[in-house]
Design goal:
Blueprint: H1 2-18, E1 23-26, E2 29-32, E3 46-51, H2 56-63, E4 72-74, E5 80-81, E6 84-85, E7 88-89, E8 104-105, E9 108-109, E10 115-120, E11 125-128, E12 131-134, H3 139-156, E13 163-165, H4 166-169, H5 183-187, H6 197-204, H7 215-225, H8 235-249, H9 260-273
Helix pairs in contact: 6-9, 7-8, 7-9
Amino acid sequence: MRRLLWPLVLALLLAGCAGEKGIVDRQGYQLDTRRQAQGSSPRVRVLVIHYTAEGFATSLATLTGREVSVHYLIPAQPPLHQGRPRIWQLVPEQQSAWHAGSSFWRGATRLNDTSIGIELENRGWQETAAGRTFAPFEPAQILALVPLARDIIARYGIRPQDVVAHADIAPQRKDDPGPLFPWRALAEQGIGAWPDAQRVAFYLAGRDPHAPVPMDSLLELLGRYGYEVRPEMTPREQRRVIMAFQMHFRPARWNGAPDAETQAIAEALLEKYGGERAASGSRA
């Protein structure tokens, strides 16, 4: 009799559980999600901002092909639908997109696996008689970016220092989104890092902002903040790292020269956000 009753009792128990919080029915099985492991971490840790260096139609074709991809693409002038700007999602956030390439940030590599990428339609830079000049970003495009970036940051708990430029994670290859991207304005809206002006002035300590500082000491600070700094780097590679940092945090002067203001900004950022901590479990 007990053998006959047990399946019925079990079925009734399972039926009761199905209505409980944390019990999820699937086709052919049921999940109990009420006990979650402590030994876990979110897959997405980094938000990477890019520019396309191409028009929208060409960018859309490139980013939906087989070579490269990105999670989101924002036109220079996003079309409005019911008063809201339209953004193209090309890869679901749960999947990796091929946007970061060979990259490094805060001890982590393989950033395609741990990041979300946003491409902004922008022609990038051009060589002119005055040197390399970058194209500005359209205000409507930045207005569309803000709520998207905020949502991503909130969903994954992304820290300010892990909202980065493509140039930050690949300074030897990339310049995007360049010195005209409004990092400071976005930081004021909770998107990304920015140093406190008073602390920059404190660390500058009355020095001429453009006074030279030792290359090694500046690179040590940038390496602690998150940039890839290697002992065997050539002088050109060292300057590329500094230039990437300056385009992000000191866009008025991004010549790659190690100077007192760049050093003071790095020190203020380290004080505010702390030093290197791996953004994922992947290591070089």
